[in-house]
Amino acid sequence: MVQFELAALLQATLETIYIVFISSTCAVIFGLAIGLVLFLTAAKQPLENRWIHRILSLVVNITRSIPFIILMISILPLTRWLVGTTIGSNAAIVPLALAAIPFFARICENAFFEVQSSLLETAHAFGATTYQLVQKVLLPESLPLLIRGATLTVIALVGYSAMAGVVGGGGLGELAINYGYQRFNAFVTTETVIVLVMLVAIIQWYGDLLAKRRKVLSCVVAACVIGVACVVFQLWPWVHGGGTFLRVGVISGWPEEVMKVAQQVAKDQYHLNIKIVTFNDYVLPNTALVNGNIDANIFQHEPYLEAQIVARGFPLASIGKTFVYPMGFYSRKIHALSELKSGATIAIPNDPSNEARALLLLQKSGLITLDQHALSNASVRDITSNTRHFKFKTLDAAQLPRVFKDVDLVGLTNDFVGPAHFTLDEALLKEGADSLYANIIVVRKSEQNDDRLQALVAVMHSQAVLEETQRLFPHGAAIPAW
Known about the structure:
This protein is of the alpha/beta class. It folds into 3 domains: 2-237, Orthogonal Bundle (MetI-like fold), CATH 1.10.3720.10; 246-325 and 438-476, 3-Layer(aba) Sandwich (D-Maltodextrin-Binding Protein, domain 2), CATH 3.40.190.10; 328-430, 3-Layer(aba) Sandwich (D-Maltodextrin-Binding Protein, domain 2), CATH 3.40.190.10. The chain contains 16 helices and 13 strands. The protein has helices at residues 2-40, 50-65, 68-74, 76-83, 89-113, 117-125, 130-160, 172-181, 186-213, 217-240, 254-270, 284-290, 302-312, 352-364, 451-460, 463-472; strands spanning 246-251, 274-279, 296-301, 316-324, 328-330, 345-349, 369-370, 383-385, 391-395, 409-412, 429-430, 438-444, 479-480. The strands form 3 sheets. A 6-stranded mixed beta sheet has the order 2-1-3-12-4-13, with helices on both faces. It has a 5-stranded mixed beta sheet with strand order 9-6-10-5-11, covered by helices on one side. The longest helix has 39 residues, at 2-40. It starts with a helix and ends with a strand.
């Protein structure tokens, strides 16, 4: 276990360094250029141009005002166009760089305005061109401020990189979420925080040293070394893994642990290399499959897939079932549904798949009534009858086990029954073994007869995967659906 944690921590650290280094390089290069244009086109400057300055300044301000997570999601088409994928470390670099470029550009502009105007006027009086003005006066005089600004930008990117997990980008943030937050492992969270603090401390120390000495040669050498290491980091998995992977998307948490057993079975029995791609939401896996970023996903049930196909026209198909994981409702305040008072607060998952599933279960028990046109795609807004005035809180699935003191009833998916210190038998309301919500293996329609994908079905139905799944989800919490 310790060896695994150290290996995972090292891998995540390398991923963070890779993501931050590439995005920082882009931010410094393009941010410096934009900062120069902003300064030079400002009023009373060598290339004064009111319209260029205003338009560019407006673009910088708008980009800086967009929350990073919204920026990351909104530019997915651009990300795919630039790097050929919307998941992975390279996909995380694009939004990180775009978020940091305007930030550093504004820092550069302010640094240039700190240069004494008398120096610029003197250089201009001696006939210096704009290029000479920038090279001989502006950059040398503002260098300490630029270095400190670059240091601040790199540190900010270390923080932003924690969101790389949204696109399966890896890194320390994803490790803390997937293995710490999702699995209630405080040790993993603590060790990732310690490494992040160390990284920030090293960056700050080196930035301060560089600003004092004003010698950038060591920085150039270090950048070259890290750059070479980044290339090796990207190529090594392909060389080591034989160059060919079947990329399978799963939701982070215990499903990833099941998939690791399947990964070993596939390699030993079918000579098939599986690359596990984890997601923290229920929207991206199907989008990634349609876009060709993964070859299959195992996270959803048939009603959710059908709703996605109808709503978004996805050319996807199911090629096999895995397990039924009955959803249940639990409480630490009541011992039976009959004790649930009017006006009680009920917490349910906020992802589209499990929110609808939880509401349908409540409807089946007679607590609420849903719009019959919504059903498997229902949300809280589709409740048409709530005579007992229940209050609903939709939360991240991993947050639900933490809110039992604050609400009266909680709907849990099986991933979080154990961490909440319950068993399926203790559910006040639960799905039966005949549930329609069996997890399925989904692929692109055009590839559903692919031999590798058919082998994946056999792997997921293997005895080893069955035993691991039932170990992680005991007491009938995982029912084979094949």
